[in-house]
Each structure stands twice: as C-alpha cells, then as structure tokens.
Amino acid sequence: MSITLVNFKVPVSLLERFDALCRLAFKTRTSVLIDMMKEYTLTQAENLEVLTLRYEEVDRILGNFRDLNDWKVSRTSNSENDWIGVQNRSEFDIYEDDDGFHERMMDWDS
CB 3.0 to 4.6 Å from 70: which of 7, 20, 65, 80, for a disulfide? Predict the structure, then answer.
C-alpha cells in the first residue's frame, strides 16, 4: 500500500480539542483521521448505493405511468427531441373555501 503526506489548515481551537480527545483515547491524530476517512468513505458508498436504487425506482415508476398511457405526449415542434408531456384531466377538482382545500368528483360529461 502506498501512502502520501496530507497537509491542510484547520482552526486552532478545533485542532486543540481534537488533539486532547485523541490523547484521552490513547490514539494518534493520524490514526483517528484515517479511521474517520475510512468510515466516511464507507458511509458515502452506502448512501450512493441507496440513492441509486431510489432513482432507479422512480425511473421504473415513471416508466410504468408512461406505459399505461397516463400521460399524453404531443409533438410541439419539428424536432424529434422536442416533446412535452401533458397530464390527463383528473376526475377530481381541488378547490379552496374558508375551511381549506377540498376535493370533489367532477362530471366532465355535463
């Protein structure tokens, strides 16, 4: 395993507290920083994996909606890449009165 020297600036008061805690734990500053870097790396890798799975799930759900034709797609120009999604009209209408928001069934045929 190759190693490299890392130097960076840190506020003096933070470094003094950090060094005092390292001494109380009978650990060197370097060993604690390396442990923290390892933990951060593992945690971020797990977070990225979870985020990736969540985005894939959103893409899957959106794909299902498109497959079920819940969205109408109409062409807006001559460009093949220029499309716009238009949501179907809902059976419900949201309105607000003095009591707050309410939902009511709409009869679009009348």
Answer: 65
